[in-house]
Amino acid sequence: MFTLIIEVFKFYVLKNGESMGRTAYVKMTTSVFLCLLLTFSGAARAEDTCGVVDLSLLGDDWTLTKKEKGVTHYSQPVKGYELNAYKGVCTINKSVGDVYSMLTDVASHPTWVAYCDSSSIVKKNSDEDAIQYYNFDIPWPFLNRDIVVHCRQKTNPQTGTVIIDCNAVKTPVVPLKKNHMRITDAKQRWVLEAVDHDRTRVTFIALTSIDGPAPGILKRLISNVIPSTSLENFKTVSTRYAASPTTKYMARSGSGEENKTTSGL
Between the CA of residue 134 and those of 3, 14, 191, what are the distances in Å? Predict the structure, then answer.
């Protein structure tokens, strides 16, 4: 990247330097170099931080932050991100299929996703691939947020473990709303692992970036309060959630299959 800056700088300066006085020439070269440096370094930072973090590569360097309502909460700093990554782990007394049903019932997400007042499927590409939209009613004086995410699912046929990865979509698949700020850099991962036939270990990882300056209370709300409260709500709501008959979950080999059509992913 620095080599590119130098080459552009040389081209511009050599092209214009002969027709200028020495003082003007020095000012011009300094200004051009600084502008190029700021422009390309900004682009490099964007490349480094937007959409390139693989949540599965965060490692085990998590710091325990609290244990509450049957959920263990962790955080971890991520290079290139101002906000920490969040991880929550809990055990739900439901089968993987039932937990999967709840998680992929997108229309019901406002019942447990914190501050979410509406959610919908924008486009269903397949049973394992969908575009989803969420609108968040953020407390005054902050603007409301919304986000479009592309969710993909994979299931381990030997263990029955389900992994769902959701990444923010940067293109305006859904028109921007007035008095809203669109979140365009966010990643989530859900991991559903069978403890036994009627219990599931749920791991939720989230990493979000806020565009522009923001007060500490808003940063904490988005990076910690919303994901942690959502997982606590998810565990609570799961006790009264009835699995939808329109959900497809492929159980582990040897234990049978449920052949249904998914309502979400």
Answer: 42, 52, 20
Rg of the chain over Cα atoms, rounded to whole angstroms, equals 23
Residues 217 and 224: their CA atoms lie apart, in Å, by 10
Give the start-end residues of each E strand in 69-198. 71-76, 85-92, 116-126, 129-136, 144-155, 162-168, 180-183, 186-196
Nearest-10 Cα torsion for 206, 211, 214, 219 = 0
Q: How far apart are CA 51 and CA 33, in angstroms?
A: 29
> pLDDT of 130-189, one tens digit each?
999 999 999 999 999 999 999 999 999 999 999 999 999 998 899 999 999 999 999 999
Instruction: Return the structure tokens found at 22.
Output: 């020495």
pTM above 0.70, yes or no: yes
Could you tell me which CATH number the domain at 57-238 has? Answer: 3.30.530.20
Q: Residue 43: pLDDT band by 50, 70, 90 thresholds?
A: very low
**Residue boundaries of the structural domains of the chain:** 2-49, 57-238
Pairing of strands 71-76, 63-68: antiparallel
* Helices and strands per DSSP (H, E), number in the chain: 5, 10
**Residues in CB range of 93: below 8 A, 6 or more apart:** 198, 199, 238, 239
Supply the pLDDT for residue 54.
65
Distance CA 111, CA 240 (A): 12
Calculate the CA dihedral of residues 223, 228, 233, 235 and round it to 10 degrees.
140
Q: With CA atoms as reference, report the closest residue to 64 among 88, 97, 40, 43.
A: 88
